[in-house]
């Protein structure tokens, strides 16, 4: 019988702020039930000296299989948007608010269907995100999608009301103060009506350029 999950990942997060050590420790996390069905944990990826951190919602089907963040269709779209925005991918650290894939199984077919993480799961996984933030200490933090934004800015935060604004993190238990920007998750561009995707993609690129401008003004 699997061990009963804890209510938070805090007890599984080591004191070190070495990213490789954090990633290794995350494989043993049982801070919520999602580890029971996911193939593996998907930790963040990128340099500890990255000046920009991008945070999404959770791993998808491809990420769950490979163990690497943003390698599926949304990740490819994000890579394209970063190029269009003139942002060097080597300067970016990417991760998710939740480190395990939450999904449902279809009645037909084999492809697992993404399911939005609940608030309990987001809060349970937050210690990992805070540890990554403390390890990387980026100049700019970009929260992509409502789940990512609400994980650090509060459950009442409304992303659409604050796109294009320079924001600050509320008081947290870390001595880290990046400029914060919000945008949609790249997957929302892919899910939108075909006739709207070009406009949505351009808006994503614009948001990334805005975020990069926050770094440049420091």
TrEMBL record:
**InterPro entries per record:** UDG_Type-4/5 (IPR051536), Ura-DNA_glyco_family4 (IPR005273), Uracil-DNA_glycosylase-like (IPR005122), Uracil-DNA_glycosylase-like_sf (IPR036895)
A single GO BP annotation from the record? Answer: DNA repair
Pfam families listed in its UniProt record: UDG
Domain (Uracil-DNA glycosylase-like): give its ranges: 43-205
Q: Which UniProt keywords apply?
A: 4Fe-4S, DNA damage, DNA repair, Hydrolase, Iron, Iron-sulfur, Metal-binding
CDD domains under this entry? UDG-F4_TTUDGA_SPO1dp_like
Does the keyword field hold Hydrolase?
yes
| DNA damage found in the keyword field | yes
Tell me what organism the protein belongs to. Answer: Mycobacterium lehmannii
Where does the source fall among the domains of life? Bacteria
Indicate the family of this protein: Belongs to the uracil-DNA glycosylase (UDG) superfamily. Type 4 (UDGa) family.
Which GO MF terms are attached to this record? 4 iron, 4 sulfur cluster binding; deaminated base DNA N-glycosylase activity; metal ion binding
Kindly provide the name given to this protein in its UniProt entry: Type-4 uracil-DNA glycosylase
